[in-house]
Specification:
Layout (H helix, E strand, L loop, with lengths): L9 H13 L25 H20 L1
């Protein structure tokens, strides 16, 4: 998730995470600083830090899927 995401703010993220915990739903949340909303699934970015965050988010997703 993007830090300071205006479309998915901290209070919404916290409420979603609380729901997942309360329902004992396996999940993993990582917040990436300095990236825009949707950075992990859309767009080609020139900024190397966003490209690195895209790669890290993709690897996190693969790892989570393989372990579940």
């Amino acid at each position: 998730m993007a830090e300071n995401d205006q479309l998915f703010p901290d209070d919404v993220r916290a409420e979603g995470q609380k729901y997942l915990v309360d329902k004992e739903i396996p999940h993993e949340i990582q917040v990436f600083p300095g990236v825009p909303h949707g950075f992990a699934v859309i767009g080609e970015y020139d900024d190397p830090s966003i490209k690195e965050a895209q790669k890290a988010a993709f690897e996190q997703m693969l790892s989570w899927l393989k372990s579940h």
